[in-house]
Each structure stands twice: as structure tokens, then as C-alpha cells.
Specification:
- The protein has 269 residues and is an alpha/beta fold.
- It is 43% helix and 14% strand.
- It has 12 helices and 8 strands.
- An 8-stranded parallel β-barrel has the order 1-2-3-4-5-6-7-8, surrounded by 7 helices.
- α2 (28-37) crosses α4, α6 crosses α7 and α9 (166-181) runs parallel beside α10.
- It is globular.
Length: 269
């Protein structure tokens, strides 16, 4: 098995021009598969609320719920780095609250680093975590938490209209530099766009990775594992390409199962 991925390894990948590949996962089996495939990063996202539990936005996910999914992913991950989202609430409350929550996710959840959403709005929280020796994956741009807070639908956050433009590039470069100076070990630039994204990558020495609205102009890409494999009911009728359509395969399997049961067939196993 290749060596365990470290933060220093991710930073070296940026210097070498090697793209960083990651997935967002929330359970042990998916983490095991992604880890075996060779991803560099498994991100435990608060997107679990929308994509797995039927919430309207990520603001409804609690600290205890994030701890549960973080533990599950940690159990399934050996080689890749595990990053866990700080849910909405602790950073907004105070740097001390953010630190307490982050320590739980590190000590009890097994996370290797903590992602702070809307980190440019909470630099003191970033500094508090870094001072305590906790690696920070700082998310900025139009992030899921900030978008939800301002009423931007989750489904609209990956649209071209949501991506940063040249007009926003200078401000976003300054935010990225500020987060690097605060001690962040990597940046999650959400809805970067090719102009602002490329400018930020050039301006900082730490890896700049993207999920929503990311692309080859960044140092790496993180995608929802469920999106990569088409695992959700929306993929039953979607015309969007994915690497495999698990939803249609599951529909076919369940249909065949029902038919066998109705016909009184013996089902092995």
C-alpha cells in the first residue's frame, strides 16, 4: 500500500504540479472504496444533511451528527487524509466554541484536519485552531453555509452564475492570503471559476482545492462520492453524465427482487 497521505504530501503535490483528488463521503463502505481507489483526501461534509438525510440546507446538521459520520469515515479510511467539516454554529459563536468542537472531531472523530466554512469571516477561529495544533482546511468563496444563510438554493450553488468573476478576484486573493497567514494548511475555494481560481492558486503557497464550481484551474478537486457514482434518486431521470449510474442499477435490482418475490422464487443469500 502507498504511504499514508499527509498534509505535507498535499503541499508537495502543489509544488510538483500534481493534482489532488478527493471525495466527499459519509459512511464506512464508501470511504473504504474511495481509499482503496487511491484518493488523496476524504472529506466528511455537512452536505450529508441535504444529500443523504433530506434536509433543505446544511445549516440543520448538528455537531453530534458530524461526529457520527466522521467516526464512520475514519473507520473506513487508512491511506487518505480525513477532513471533517465544522458544522454551522461553533465558529459563529466564538473562537473558543470552534476550538472545542474541532477538538471533539479530532480526538473523538479521528479527523486529520478540520474544514471551517466561510473561514474568511472567522479568521480568529482559524487562528485558534492552528495555535492548538489543529490543521485547518479553510473554505471560502460562495460556500454551502453562507449560501444557505442567504437563501441561495443548494441546487443552484454549482451554476455558472455562482462562480467568482474577474471583478471578485482581487478580493478573493486577499482573503486567500489572509487565511494562509492565519495558518490554514489548505484552501477549499468554493465556486472559484477559472479567473479568480487561477489567481488564488498563484497567490498562495498552500493547496487550493475545489468542490462546487471547481475545475482544472485549481490544485485539486473534491467531488461527492454519490455524484461520482450516480447514487441518488435524481440520477434515475438525470441526463447529466456520471462515471456510473448506481441509481438505475439499484432500480433494476429492486424491480427484479420484487418480481422474484411475487413469483414465489427462492432467493439465495
Amino acid at each position: 500500500m502507498p504511504d499514508k497521505v499527509t498534509i505535507a504530501a498535499l503541499q508537495q503535490m502543489k509544488r510538483d504540479g500534481q493534482k489532488i483528488a478527493g471525495v466527499v463521503a459519509w459512511d464506512t463502505p464508501m470511504a473504504k472504496i474511495a481509499d482503496r481507489a487511491g484518493v488523496d483526501l476524504v472529506s466528511v461534509g455537512d452536505s450529508v444533511g441535504v444529500n443523504l438525510w433530506g434536509h433543505d440546507d446544511p445549516l440543520q446538521v448538528t455537531m453530534d451528527e458530524m461526529l457520527t459520520v466522521c467516526k464512520a469515515v475514519r473507520r473506513g479510511t487508512v491511506r487518505a487524509l480525513v477532513s471533517c467539516d465544522l458544522p454551522y454554529g461553533p465558529a459563529q459563536e466564538s473562537p473558543d466554541a470552534a476550538l472545542r468542537a474541532a477538538m471533539r472531531l479530532i480526538k473523538d472523530g479521528g479527523a486529520d484536519m478540520i474544514k471551517v466554512d466561510a473561514a474568511a469571516d472567522f479568521p480568529d477561529a482559524v487562528r485558534a485552531l492552528v495555535r492548538a495544533g489543529i490543521p485547518v482546511f479553510a473554505q471560502f468563496g460562495l460556500t454551502p453555509q453562507t449560501a444557505a444563510k442567504h437563501g441561495v438554493p443548494y441546487s443552484a450553488q454549482n451554476s455558472p452564475d455562482a462562480q467568482a468573476t474577474g471583478e471578485a478576484a482581487a478580493r478573493l486573493v486577499e482573503e486567500a492570503k489572509m487565511l494562509e497567514n492565519a495558518g490554514a494548511c489548505a484552501l477549499d475555494f468554493t465556486n472559484s471559476g477559472p479567473v479568480a481560481g487561477a489567481a488564488v492558486v498563484k497567490a498562495v503557497s498552500i493547496p487550493v482545492i475545489g468542490g462546487f464550481g471547481g475545475g482544472p484551474w485549481l490544485d485539486g478537486r473534491v467531488r461527492l462520492a454519490h455524484t461520482a457514482i450516480g447514487y441518488a434518486d435524481k440520477w434515475l431521470d438525470s441526463k447529466t453524465d456520471t462515471y456510473v449510474n448506481t441509481a438505475k442499477a439499484a432500480l433494476g435490482a429492486f424491480t427484479a427482487l420484487i418480481a422474484d418475490v411475487r413469483a414465489g422464487k427462492q432467493i439465495k443469500g
